[in-house]
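Pasting two entries for a bug report.
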Amino acid sequence: MTTDNIFSGLKVVDLASFIAGPAAAVILSDFGADVIKVEPPKGELWRIANKIPPQPIAPEPYQWHLNNRNKRGVALDLKAPGAAKILRRLVEWADVLIVNTPHPARKKLGLEYEDVAPWNLRLIYADLTGFGEKGPDASLPGFDITAYWARSGLLSLTRDAGAPPTWPLSGSGDHATAVGLFSAIVMGLYRRERTGKGSYVTTSLLAEGIWAAGVSIQGALSGAKLFGLHDRKNPPNPAMNVYQSADDHWFVLLVTPDKQAALANAIGRADLLTDPRFSDPAKAAANAAALAGILDEAFATQPMAHWREVFEQAHITFGDVKAPADVINDPQLRANDIVVPLEGAGNKVTSTISSPMQVHGLAKVPAKRAPELGEHTDEVLRELGFASAEIEDLRAAGAVAAPRPIPAVA
């Protein structure tokens, strides 16, 4: 396994906040990029997300490490005197600049593509927005819950009949969007390899949410008949439903037509194959509630261990519905480097989630803790050509903050 990484030597400035933009930078860092994380002198709010419900509460900033590992940290006040000079040198240094500041604020800060592109004609300017660059809501701030989930239609679809919309899993849309933004950056880099020119690449939480809900949205675009909200007691197709075992274990069942006989035999109900209520698709649809009830009764007779063995032997597709506390013990995670060791965070934050792609024969960069606030400010400024006296002047002007002491690792 070679230690040469795909993005070794690639220089990235991460000016984004919260999750999606920084997570795209994490993917680049996993494959060798040198990423500088820029945040305001008081720190980014995501540093304290571990204390804000409904995020899982913990004494340590585990989310910060997840989305900012392997980066160098710079604390910079873009509004302060002298900050523009630092920004320019960062852009001149960078191959990739990731920004998610809303465009009205971005314009005031001189961060629009038109402002910075003349400083570096090979720059890949990666723009992440909530709702896209155009249209009546282009200037609105957006989180994945509002833009990816609610506005896209996903939140209206991922609930049971009779239930109100629920609060989605925080960050799930952001991490999906991060992969999209990473892909856009790689396309820009590929174009630069062919033309020598930089690119302005972009995606939005809304666009990524629409893509995720694409089957239903395309159906609506095409005039398809959409089924109502899912009702597991009366589903459109009982072979694609959620059931519960005798030991209260929920599982998802997905039986394709070629496996219906295998399922009937597996539950000891071969008679279902000749039952006139289910003899053709129209009758089966009309009697879907009855079949769902039969399957409910059958699955309630045995524990999940029994059904897991039965399904595996019959090659019937199913999925355990697991809670996070169960998921982390799944052997597939470590066998496939989905969860990997995290160095330096200390205490209980000893593992992290790797980015969701691998290249065979290529080792990712070992995961190291996220930076403390302003930890590498002086180091980076010196690399950008600032003398020690200039750095002190910038600090006196409030453009950069003094680095925080690094806490001892337990």
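Entry 2 (this is the one that rendered wrong in the viewer):
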Amino acid sequence: MQTECNLSLFDFASVEGRSVVGDFGGGTITSDAGALLLGQADRAIKLVERFASCFSDRRQQELIEHEVKTLVGQRVFAIALGYEDLCDHDELRHDLVMAVLAGKLQARRKDCAPVAGKSTLNRLELSKTEPTRYHKIAHDGTAIEALFVELFLDSHKTVPDEIVLDLDATDDPLHGRQEGRFFHGYYDCYCYLPLYIFCGDRLLAAKLRPSNIDAAAGAVEEVARIVAQIRQRWGKVRIAVRADSGFARENLMAWCEENGVHYIFGLAKNKRLKAAIAEELGEAEKESKESAKPARRFKDMLWRTRKSWSKERRVIGKAEWTQGEENPRFIVTSLSKDYGDARRLYEEVYCARGEMENRIKECQLDLFADRTSAATMQANQLRLWFASMAYVLVESIRRLALKATEFAQATCGTIRRKLFKIGALVTVSVRRIRFAMASGCPYKGAFAAAHRALRAALDTG
């Protein structure tokens, strides 16, 4: 393998009379040996192969060096490993880990590496929905969106009785003049407003949107698409939709009611709602002052707006007194009392939606889903999908391989730092490629457990 070395020595403080120096002349060494787990997980769920099938390639095949599957996998693996910039690949293309993950150790042309550099990957990220003269690789956005749901469905060994789809919008700050750039008053910046849909830890949709819209814009279409695809495979599963007050919109609630989908949404407070729980607030205030602790009461009622709602709906009010002041909150739901009383629906069912925010943080902070610096929204949507696929891949390792380890609940960033970022000396012979990983790695036990679990997942199909 080609290795570009900087042989200049770096001097450091001496130790026991011996000089300490460093250089980049170590030869075939990688800092990402743990990425082999990514390759193992990919073989278990076939993510890269299925993702690549969402692209069409009009290049002259006899003239190309890197197939679409290689390019797609290279981008997903690199994001999972923490390399968000395409320019990183001008060095990464010489790393044996990337070659092994691609299943391609040697390039056919002398002037090429086994995997692609930044220019080729940039053309992939700028691909259109139809091939053009300068962008002959095209992507099918509809197929990519459907793939997220397929991967979610395939991740279940048995059909669940009930699932909850969590919806949320978040800000994706922009620092250039990208297409679809608008100022958002709440977030106090220019940004996109992507819509995420999760079921537990599993990502079903990541839709890039401009920020000059309502938080729930397009939610009906996304939920309808996902629910229809789920019901094709799981005809009898009960589905509920959960979100904050930004999604308590008539069109979304009406669609759910018409299509047999339950919902539980936050509801923005107003004078009428607060007046409806005035008695309960008074009781909570009295208890709180007597006990010097927070107190809360719940009220279950039928309620409707004066204009925007088409019917009365079940509303639950939380009358809370805490830190010397009132803290009223409300939710609206189609769930009947068979699913629980007011306290349970608020505290156990609705409040659980907050966990989704941690998943969004993983996507944006750990896997660079907010790296939307391309000029067009189409290119930025594709970038968001690449980051989202990297999340799905790392989440599959957490789900399939880390249950019995200390990383069972670890974030994607922690998994990367402690299991993927392992230094190794790489030796290549006729029969074997050996990654001699650092003997002092403190997480070798968890790595071994993950390897065993992924091998078992492959053996069971």
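Dev reply: Rendering is fixed now. As a check, the viewer should reflect this: The mean pLDDT is 94.
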